Amino acid sequence: MLRIMLPCYLVKEQLAAKLALLRQLAEGEIPCFLAGEKQKFAIGLEIGTNMESFLQPDFFDKGRRLLAEADLPKDLFLSFHGPQFMEETCHSSNFFCGQQGFKNLLRTIDFARLIEADLVNVHAHQSLQNHQINALNQKELMNLKRIHLSTVRNTLARMRDKVGLTPIMCVENVPYNYHGDRYVDPTIGLYDLAFVDPIDFAKIISPKQNIFACIDVCHLAQVYDSSELLDKIVPLGTGVRHVHLSDLKGAWHPFISTCQEGRIPGTGRIGKTVFFDLLCHFLWLSQQVDINLVLEINDSDFVAIRETTQALNELLDNIARIPASAMLDRICD
């Protein structure tokens, strides 16, 4: 099943705007077609927050109350995007950094269960500054990466031992050079060790443990040329269950692209053709497993959500253009 989702912070006005748009989609006010036939897609919200808010004692009560007052549609799928201190990836509060981080990972599960979210999505950053990378040889860097991948795998297994097999857990790919969605001198950026190349997900994807990959297309396009994106995603197969869709602006340089994320798919450097090919692949996957497409768009006005509305309409237009034969061809391949 293909599910169309929108991200949303726990802000009353934004929640109302995103829900209104999703209701239009669910009730057929926005026409949807697939292979020439009228279609109704499942809908969902990805709830997000920052680490400072997440750690506040009243965060659970505020979040639960706000969602209860919003009168969520009965069939709305909820996911929770766990927060992280992005500029300090070894911070003790981050999920894969020691005992306090592990407690916070369990806290994301507790909150997801409180709001009846069926999926939690997290980052597993482990970054080094430029001068730290330059001080290490390739063998030392690969050893640090191996240790981090092992830490993430073992932490997720420990989490499953504590909480059981629900909710679904996804780990998201990251850009190599984190620069806060703006240009900075590459010498002061943070460089991630793992989950930059999707091949790393082979170490942690576990259908038996209900652990999968979230692919952020925009993050991937900061690392690889647009022409490489599909080839990077396809080998993961049904290990991908959650997708963040957006485009980006800015010049591309291998691994250290500077960019502005959150653009309407097809309006930036990735382009319409690549997005259409990606969409064909995700639609094909959705015939085998549930796939969530999250339109992660930066709106100029977070209440009016004009860009998100445009992105949704263009997504539906592209889905309508996909012939049934395209999906069959992929199955035959």
For the sheet with most strands, the description reads: 8 strands, parallel, barrel
CATH architecture: Alpha-Beta Barrel
Low-confidence parts, pLDDT < 50 over ≥5 residues?
Answer: 180-184
Our measurement of the CA-to-CA distance between the termini, rounded to an integer number of angstroms, reads 21 Å
Question: For the record, what is the CATH homologous superfamily label?
Answer: Divalent-metal-dependent TIM barrel enzymes
**Morphology:** globular
Percent range for β-strand residues: 15-25%
Mean pLDDT: 89
What class would the helix/strand composition place it in? alpha/beta
Specify the helix fraction band.
Answer: 25-40%
Number of helices: 11
Order of helices and strands: EHEEEHHEHEEHHEEEEHHEEEHEHH
Got a strand count? 15
**Spatial strand order of the main sheet:** 1-4-5-6-8-11-12-15
Evaluate the radius of gyration. Answer: 19 Å
CATH class: Alpha Beta
CATH topology: TIM Barrel
How many domains make up the coordinates? 1
